[in-house]
Amino acid sequence: MSVTLSDIEAAAARIEGAVLNTPCHRSQTLSKMTGANVYLKFENLQFTASFKERGALNKLLSLTPEERSRGVIAMSAGNHAQGVAYHAQRLGIPATIVMPEGTPFVKVKHTMDFGARVLVEGATLTDAYARAQQLAQENKFVFVHPYDDDLVIAGQGTIALEMLRQFPEIDCLIVPVGGGGLISGCAIAAKGIKPSIEIYGVETQFYAAMRDAVTGEEHAIGGQTIAEGIAVRQVGERCIPIVKELVSDIILVHEEKIERAIALLLSIEKTVVEGAGAAGFAALLERQDLFRGRNVGLILCGGNIDPRLLSTVILRELSREGRILTLSVEIEDRPGILAKIATMVGDAGANIIEVSHNRMLTHVPAKLAELRLSIEARDLAHARDVTARIRAAGYKVRELPTG
Fold it and tell me: Torsion angle, CA of 356/360/361/364, rounded to 10 degrees?
């Protein structure tokens, strides 16, 4: 292997003080929920809200004065971009970042705020990579790869060093997999310290590129995912043999599980994570049977989620839990009916958060109207009780999709 435990320990010494040794603690609630002892590493609390700072800084610190003066270039969907831009600015190194179209605006803005020149070009990461390589050759920039680089891999591995020094009882790690830099570095570090530890990767079902690379399976790659940080079609060539040798399995997770993981981490741990950052917890939710009774380390690798998307995830999860429901109630179009139904909802202990009144439905008699209510309930059973009360009062009620 081109990266060793010694390389990772050297990286840890090199970047110490410039990146956070982020908090890591056992979650009592998540442990009880899943049947595993769950240890969370809060990499979403880094200054740029992502672990990517570690590898980026380790690479930048290796540059000669002449290379620094020429400047660096990187391609990224966001977190690597911010890590490179922030530390390049700190070190006085000019930075250019190529970001693919569709990168969340919050990530583009933060990268620009760190002083980098940002080019939004290419429909995919692969296209952005090709453009960045072209610009590197034309301008003699040093290319800082997000994952297929030994120094970057060593920097990312410092996370596992910190986790196992604090909690040596951890016996397995679940690590999000995009290009493979994070899981490669963490696997080398963890296995070097504790050979018995097991490493599991996690990918979204739409981007199973690493699983395919190490198993020979063939999944359709592509599609819309909330975990754009790990939506990678081409994994790192340096990473594939490391993952083959050191990783026990790569778990594929569904979008719904990732959304649920985001919502649970927000409501229980009071921490904001993006889709990729929640992927490890999503895998634990997906495979509770595999991890029950074990000491499981999860890396919350990033927290750069668009606020509008986060609000959508929260509402969708509340809807799945039955805590928000939308009802269509057929009513007589006369005074007092709305107040009567609102009183029923209130007496049932629920809260009306939105209401609309439609008299223009052509498929019902002219003296009838549709009342649409968005209602907040305690849980699914409570929501069903509210609906049953309105029906029992003689009204025709339909439950509608929320959103």
Answer: 110
Contact 24, 40 (CB under 8 A): yes
Listed residue (347, 337, 348) closest to 383, CA to CA:
348
Q: What is the pTM of this model?
A: 0.88
Phi, psi of 96, deg, nearest 5: -120, 135
Q: Tell me: do 249 and 335 sit in the same domain.
A: no
Please give the backbone phi and psi of residue 201, each rounded to the nearest 5 degrees, phi first: -95, 165
Give the whole-angstrom CA distance, residue 94 versus residue 103.
Answer: 22
> How many domains is the chain partitioned into structurally?
3
Average per-residue pLDDT for the chain: 92
The neighbour count for residue 140, using CB atoms within 10 Å, is 11
User: What token pair was written down for 271?
Assistant: 């921490």
Cα–Cα dist 154/152, whole Å: 5
CATH number of the domain enclosing 129: 3.40.50.1100
- Which of these, 92, 101, 89, lies nearest to 48 by C-alpha position? 89
Domain boundary among 317, 352, 371: 317
Q: Which amino acid is at 322?
A: G
Query: What residues are paired with 18 via a beta bridge?
Result: none
35-65 pLDDT per residue, tens: 999 999 999 999 999 999 999 999 999 999 9
Q: State which of 317, 351, 383 marks the end of a domain.
A: 317
Measured CA to CA, the distance from residue 21 to residue 312 in angstroms comes to 31
What is the C-alpha separation between 262 and 260, in angstroms, rounded? Answer: 5
Give the chain's residues under pLDDT 70: 358-367, 402-403
Whether 136 and 169 map to the same domain: the answer is: no
Which residues span the domain enclosing 346?
321-400
What does the pLDDT read at residue 355? 83
Question: What backbone phi and psi angles, to 5 degrees, belong to 268?
Answer: -95, -50
What angle, rounded to 10 degrees, do the helices at 5-15 and 181-193 form? 110
Do 177 and 126 reside in the same domain of the chain? no
Query: What is the C-alpha to C-alpha distance for residues 292 and 188, in angstroms, rounded to an integer?
Result: 24
Strand ordering across the sheet containing 117-120: 117-120, 95-99, 72-75, 142-143
CB 395 within 8 A of CB 331: yes
Burial of 238 (0-12, 13-18, 19+ CB in 10 A): buried
